[in-house]
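Blackboard transcription, Thursday session:
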Amino acid sequence: MMVTQRSSDEWDRPAPVAGSYAFVVGDDPEDPGSLLEVSMGPQHPSTHGVFRMDVVLDGETVVKLKPVFGYLHRNHEKIAENISYLGSMPYTDRLDYFCSLTNNWAYALAVEKLAGISVPERAEYLRVILSELTRLQNHVCLAGFLAQDMGASGTPLMYGFREREKILDLFESLTGARMMCNYMRFGGCRCDTPPGWLDEARAVVDSFPRFLHEFENLLSSNEILMSRTQGIGVLGKDLAVGAGITGPCLRAAGVDYDIRKVDGYGIYPRFQFRVPLGEHGDTYDRYMMRILEMHESLGILKQALDGIPEGPIIDPKAKLRGFRPKAGESYGRIEAPKGELGFYLISDGSPSPYRYRVRPPSLVNLTVLEDLCVGHNVADTVIILGSIDIVLGEVDR
Amino acid sequence: METPQQIRDRIVGAVAGLQVECLPNGAPAGVPSLLVGRSCFREVAIFLRDDPQLRLDYCSNVTGVDWPERTEKFKVRRQVGEVEKDVEESRVIPGCLEVVYHLYSMSLKHGPLVIRVRTGDRSADVSVPSLTPVWRACELQEREVFDLFGVHFDGHPDLRRILMWDGFVDHPMRRDYVEPDDYDYEPTPHDHVLDRALARAKPGEAGCGSGAR
Amino acid sequence: MVLTSLQEVYNWGRKNSVWPLQFGLACCAIEMIASTMARYDMARFGSEVFRPSPRQADLMIVSGTVTKKMVPQIVRLYNQMPEPKYVIAMGACAISGGPFKQGYNVLKGIDRFIPVDVHIPGCPPRPEALIHGLMTLQKKIGLQSLTGDDRPRHARADEPSEFPIPGHGEHDLIPPRNPGIWQAPVSPRLKPAG
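(Written on the board underneath:)
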């Protein structure tokens, strides 16, 4: 877009801006004017934030689709390179603002690798419990939003948020904040559980299957949901691997790759859980992946809540103030609810990282958005985007 | 998986004339990385992807690193007159931009292998071969490196700015980027911010309040 | 028999049917959604109808970090809303840039381009805080008079209801602030140089 530069004196009337809504593109020489370019977003009720898709339509069918990013680019990496290592921890909360605790863990893991810090047993258990609770509330909201994108306005989302509030109450009583928890530290966690917290967590975990059963009865075999999602946005295995898709979207395509199993970070190898895999790679499989993962998460939570030992919550040797790791680099990654969340750090021995990089699963998963949407109706792009599960705070950082 | 040094030896043994160097990593659990020459970068990437023992089919992370020109001081033992002394000398290390790729294998479930490539300098000779034709996962992340660091990727299908707007000219993640000074009033105790606000405050601009409304 | 003035009836009707624009920017948007859900239920205050179109909305809740890339769109949306219209700046980022103030792409407060009626601090504010902000706005609407010198902006013919949309320059927004709405305050702690 060309911008004419004006001084602030002559700046009193808005300059005309080239049509940002819809304008006709004469792409097809046989039938000029048959293609329509529509700019969906950045303010659009279904794009899950300030995301924009430039869509070229032939009638109702998508011919071309270009995602446009950057409307929430808030310079996380630049800020992190100018503050201390620990100072970035609250900023990681705001990356994927649904899942602040898994973001904390990925960052703590990268720093622990960089400086060679070990984590006590109880803190490892708490990390697993909190990240699986995070996965539950992320997936349940995703299913709600997905149903809302299909037109089930309200009910599934309300059910999802009702359960999410219970989990947020647990987070709040443990960390002091509903969303921005800022809980993990290098070498452990910030504070121990308040009395009775584990019992409350057990109660939430025990009541969750009843809700999940109800939710599944409501949605999973719903005729509208099935006809809107089955066969829509099929993602093939080879494309998924080559394009670096991770998380439930990858497993819906049938690729068995779960970083909890592959890397076995934290204490995940101790727990029994299965990795659900899809067969068709379509939107319905991606939806079902989330539902099945919630069942597995509940299993992990039960084992972790039974096995959590007493003990210290943070490595006493871990230094919080004046933390200066030796020069070197590390890459720590975890299986976040949306896919592989990685942190790449380069230290030059100073108190702030020389290079701080977030590998965002949401951004990389959008690589295939055009491939999934082309050939489908414009209303399906909304559902496909919803099933990829992006959060703009992480896409743009 | 083999160690990066073994992989390096195997690459150099398989195809003659490839420039691959193994760089150490100071972190306790850190793995060394491979610095690959620009001219053979895509060749090496295709080798790593297709080699049956490696099968690194998944490129996880792509990022840029800015290394401005710096002066390194070091001590050398020299004969000064009659005695041998430690003499401090310095040398200038030229600046460059670096692109780092983290590779994993989804089929064999191993990794990571870190490969990196460097540009000639930071202003004129800033192009490296794009790996998007090898791994599509690089597409958006290389665009991001282009936007924020100014590395030009040869062979990228759609090299445009991704995060900043199209008319933007700077590369904000470079170390010497100067952000626009729009801090008008900062009620914080940080000295440098106060200094900046102080420098902006002109005499006669007294009065508080949130402006005319 | 209840005697009341036209102004009170008018304001009573307006303040209990404030329809917000369905418009989320960042983290605060999730708390905004949470406050419309069953537990907090903003419907109790007449504001459950989130309108996807600015033409039908009375209230813009700026919920999250405003980046420089997003500013023109926000001002344009504000201009498209019909009068009387109100703005709530929700969260530290919308008020001042918040934790991301040091960012090169972050606007240091949305009140540099559009007038803000209620500021809600917090990162993010809890749903209760948003509801309190809404009630504060309702109080403000209830006190607005239709005639007289203190009548609000929308009742004055000479006050603008649309604001200029900034452009994207080579380094920054052009201009970086709207001097007609916002002027840099000078801190009493600072002594001007020179």
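Lecturer's comment: Chain C touches chain A through 46 residues (CB under 8 Å).
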